[in-house]
């Protein structure tokens, strides 16, 4: 698949935000961070010193957060317990304004809580607090009553089955029946060996182990993946099967398409937790945007590749997928880490929070960067030499025009300018802002160091007061005389 083709699809997505219903098992995930200093003298086990706890929506709730991160609106429908874990889960989940609450509380239901103990990026132990039981008749009836109205204005439906008791056969049938009657695509992340219980779904996404459990076919290569996929299609009334194969990529087996095998792009794997949730979220978002199934599956594969490079159920954004696709390729696509991410202001909180937990010094500078020249490189190198992570703010095309730089400015569009910056060694991330000044970006990042050129007065620099107020530094970078974009443009024009 040509990366330029996919990039155009991303760039041309409808400005209308699709709604997606995600129904399934809601789980609370916690990541208990700590330090291991020694091995216990009692038994040969590590001694864990806890430092912090990070609560994240898991299961179907993680699918919902991924849908929201990809720019769609998500209705989340499921059941939680009237317990402390349920309260924490709701608080973590509904901080996101793009997630709509259709959750039902049940005093007889136990909220599943997966506790992970992590030290220096290594998972030491997982402790699951759960009590699996079939949802009560009363709550199942309540679910069945709200399903038609929940689906009504949606562009796609996700059934996220973690086998915790919420998705009974009646609930699954009701969801598929209501979505099918409206010709809404249905994406299923299955857990049951009996895949026929999802009959009527558009696409089902078993991993290699789940496909083998259902068919008895050991998935080890493209041929066995095709055999397993075709066996599932014969057993079930499902249009497409997408078998996720970890480092071997994905295989799409369909009743109407030739088999498609998509390789996993080379990337450093940090954490595979939640990658399957990212896949179904991406499938639902791009199908809701009316992209073709093939384009959708390729983009879902890219989203999964980005996901495993993050920690603790990190979500994936459209800008990260665009940045991935913008990387020039000699093979299929190069490693994402060779190009820095291109972010929006909405992406900043999650991006910056990870940096701050590592106590990295964050630097920030900004500009139009219309035609890159030696002065820009000098500024960026100077800024990077004073921080660990350099985030560069760049004016959108609309923002540039408000600066009165001329009717024909910018010469280069914002995506081209951002891509060039993201490929420079000193730059760790690029963020695009729409306002005339970057003050909203500065407030979102709270950089330790703010850098501007020496032609500015420190006290007049946008954001200097805010940075000084919380104890940050503002420094001026030396200039290279005679280097400016305006002068270059005048020289080209012969002025």
Describe the structure.
The chain is of the alpha/beta class and 495 residues long. It has two domains: 3-333, UDP-N-acetylmuramoyl-L-alanine:D-glutamate ligase, CATH 3.40.1190.20; 342-493, HUPs (Rossmann fold), CATH 3.40.50.620. It has 17 helices and 21 strands. The protein has helices spanning 3-11, 60-69, 84-93, 137-151, 169-181, 208-215, 222-235, 275-288, 293-307, 318-326, 348-357, 374-385, 397-401, 414-422, 439-445, 464-469, 485-493; strands spanning 19-24, 26-39, 46-59, 73-77, 79-81, 99-101, 104-106, 112-119, 122-129, 156-160, 186-189, 203-204, 240-244, 250-254, 260-262, 342-343, 362-367, 389-395, 429-433, 449-453, 473-477. It has a nine-stranded mixed beta sheet with strand order 6-4-1-10-11-12-13-14-15, sandwiched between helices. Strands 16-19-18-17-20-21 form a six-stranded parallel beta sheet, with helices on both faces. A hairpin with a 5-residue loop joins strand 13 and strand 14 (250-254). Helix 1 packs antiparallel against helix 10, helix 2 crosses helix 8 and helix 4 (137-151) runs parallel beside helix 5. The longest helix has 15 residues, at 137-151. It is globular and about 75 Å long. The chain starts with a helix and ends with a helix.
């Amino acid at each position: 698949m040509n990366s330029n083709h996919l990039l155009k699809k991303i760039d041309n997505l409808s400005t209308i935000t699709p709604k997606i219903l995600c129904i399934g098992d809601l789980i609370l995930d916690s990541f208990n961070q700590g330090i291991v200093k020694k091995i216990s003298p009692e038994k040969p086990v590590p001694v864990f010193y806890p430092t912090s706890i990070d609560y994240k929506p898991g299961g179907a709730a993680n699918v919902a957060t991924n849908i929201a991160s990809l720019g769609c609106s998500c209705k989340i429908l499921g059941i939680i317990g009237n317990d402390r874990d349920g309260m924490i889960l709701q608080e973590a989940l509904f901080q996101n304004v793009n997630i709509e609450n259709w959750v039902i509380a049940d005093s007889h239901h136990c909220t599943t809580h997966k506790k992970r103990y992590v030290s220096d990026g290594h998972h030491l132990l997982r402790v699951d607090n759960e009590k699996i039981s079939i949802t009560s008749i009363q709550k199942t009836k309540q679910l069945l009553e709200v399903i038609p109205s929940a689906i009504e204005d949606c562009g796609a439906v996700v059934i996220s089955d973690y086998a915790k008791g919420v998705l009974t056969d009646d609930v699954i049938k009701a969801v598929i029946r209501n979505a099918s009657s409206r010709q809404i695509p249905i994406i299923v992340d299955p857990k049951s060996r009996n895949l026929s219980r999802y009959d009527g779904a558009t696409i089902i996404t078993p991993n290699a182990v789940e496909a083998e459990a259902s068919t008895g076919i050991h998935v080890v290569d493209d041929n066995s993946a095709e055999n397993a996929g075709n066996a599932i299609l014969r057993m079930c009334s499902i249009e497409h099967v997408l078998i996720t194969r970890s480092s071997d990529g994905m295989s799409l087996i369909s009743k109407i398409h030739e088999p498609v095998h998509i390789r996993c792009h080379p990337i450093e794997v940090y954490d595979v937790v939640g990658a399957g949730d990212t896949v179904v979220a991406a499938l639902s978002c791009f199908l809701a945007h009316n992209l073709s199934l093939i384009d959708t599956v390729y983009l879902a594969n890219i989203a999964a590749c980005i996901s495993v490079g993050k920690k603790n159920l990190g979500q994936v954004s459209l800008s990260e997928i665009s940045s991935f696709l913008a990387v020039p390729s000699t093979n299929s696509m190069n490693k994402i880490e060779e190009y820095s991410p291109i972010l929006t202001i909405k992406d900043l909180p999650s991006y910056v929070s990870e940096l701050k937990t590592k106590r990295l010094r964050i630097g920030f500078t900004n500009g139009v960067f219309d035609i890159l020249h030696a002065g820009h490189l000098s500024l960026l190198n100077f800024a990077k030499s004073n921080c660990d992570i350099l985030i560069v703010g760049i004016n959108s095309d609309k923002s540039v025009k408000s600066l009165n730089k001329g009717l024909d400015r910018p010469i280069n569009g914002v995506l081209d300018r951002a891509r060039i910056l993201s490929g420079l060694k000193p730059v760790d991330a690029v963020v695009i802002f729409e306002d005339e000044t970057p003050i909203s970006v500065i407030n979102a990042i709270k950089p330790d160091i703010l850098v501007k050129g020496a032609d500015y007065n420190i006290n007049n620099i946008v954001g200097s007061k805010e940075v000084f107020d919380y104890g940050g530094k503002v420094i001026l970078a030396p200039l290279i005389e005679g280097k400016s974009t305006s002068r270059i443009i005048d020289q080209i024009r012969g002025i």
